[in-house]
């Protein structure tokens, strides 16, 4: 990742302060990237990238870290982001790829792909937590970036809403696991269902809790994949 000299950002700034500071340094187009599903043991990893326009149009009503929003508010913010963004993209990395290539590799690859898919090339990139090497423009990994930078928060909402909808689809096929409630993350209810029913095709078989639950249980009946290509969304399965 290409870096530049430090940019001073006021401590009392808001979610848009970092991007405004970068624009003053000459980086007119700032992209943010984030993911959803790192901590889950079932379902895909979803990575999104977003560029918000400067000025009033780029101030998305209700925008915040996706984890701090209710599902209903997230859906509303998602709609606003799609309507207002200069560009956005979403990449879906299926659980089989997560098993085969590893979570961290898939996360970095997903961020590179999401950023490369943007219809407008960014001048600068902000990522949540992890530095992404190999980008053609300068970038910065921001600790808790979805609470610090608007473009990262926008990416987090795009990724979270997309992934939640996919997990609702998985719930329709395998209601015994309660994917509509826990979205594939490890909870007591989810683990109990794993022990009772064994893993299904939505589960990440490389994860110890899934692998151990499947030792003495037959996997749930397979079905057709729920992943598909949509506008602005790349499915990688």
Q: Would you kindly provide a written description of the structure presented here, covering whatever features stand out?
A:
This protein has 237 residues and is of the alpha/beta class. The chain has 8 helices and 6 strands. It has a 6-stranded mixed sheet, sandwiched between helices. Strand 1 and strand 2 form a beta hairpin. Its EC number is 3.1.26.4. It catalyses: Endonucleolytic cleavage to 5'-phosphomonoester. Endonuclease that specifically degrades the RNA of RNA-DNA hybrids.
What would you say about this model in short?
The chain has helices spanning 17-24, 71-84, 95-101, 103-117, 150-173, 179-182, 188-197, 208-213; strands spanning 30-36, 45-51, 87-93, 124-128, 139-142, 233-236. It contains 8 helices and 6 strands.
Please mark out the parts with pLDDT under 50 across 5 or more consecutive residues, or reply none.
222-232
Separation of the first and last Cα atoms: 27 Å
Shape: elongated
Helix coverage percent? 25-40%
Strand content: 5-15%
Number of strands: 6
Strand order of the largest sheet: 5-4-1-2-3-6
Largest sheet entry: 6 strands, mixed
Oligomer: single chain
GO molecular function, one term: manganese ion binding
Pfam family, one: RNase_HII
Binding site for a divalent metal cation: 34-35, 128
Subcellular location: Cytoplasm
